[in-house]
Amino acid sequence: EPEVTQTPSHQVTQMGQEVILRCVPISNHLYFYWYRQILGQKVEFLVSFYNNEISEKSEIFDDQFSVERPDGSNFTLKIRSTKLEDSAMYFCASSLIGMAGELFFGEGSRLTVL
Amino acid sequence: GQQVMQIPQYQHVQEGEDFTTYCNSSTTLSNIQWYKQRPGGHPVFLIQLVKSGEVKKQKRLTFQFGEAKKNSSLHITATQTTDVGTYFCAGPSGTYKYIFGTGTRLKVLA
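^ inputs. structure came back:
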């Protein structure tokens, strides 16, 4: 069964460092998302991406965040200068169709900012 | 902005008891999805409801979408230890965004 893969599974970084989280969505999917989940809390929307551009972004997704689809397969989330409060599990998701489609989530990348 | 709330936040049940989680949106939804997240895992899609008043069943799970399309519920009959996890509803907001509910964490005691 096709799946969304994410790397790394866990990253520890110092405050102020740049982090790149990588995702390989399901190959024929067209819509890509990043969500984050602080431990024990709800799944928060960060950004959606379609047709090689950002479709929507949340208030959390400020200038420190960026997304890119550098080639036909990878979808990356970059945090330029990490803060302590960026510590969370980051989930990538993809869907075949937009607002009526099942979201397929990766297993997540746990980011710990010290 | 749009909010999606779920109650209860936590529920502990004895194995074999029933469980229900309720989801309420501040706005009318075109559809609603339900996801399950096992401890330490990622959200996994369970079902999507589209029509007002729709009821769908998956084995011991029954999903309902309210008549006004602002609320939904998930009912599990005769819980098992494999039902442990957090159940989230999610509704579309804008064009390319699903907002997740606050979640209900279910613990099943054997």
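The radius of gyration of chain A is 13 Å. The interface with chain B takes residues 31, 33, 35, 42-45, 48, 50, 55-56, 58, 91, 98-100, 102-108 of chain A (CB under 8 Å).
thumbs up if we can close this ticket
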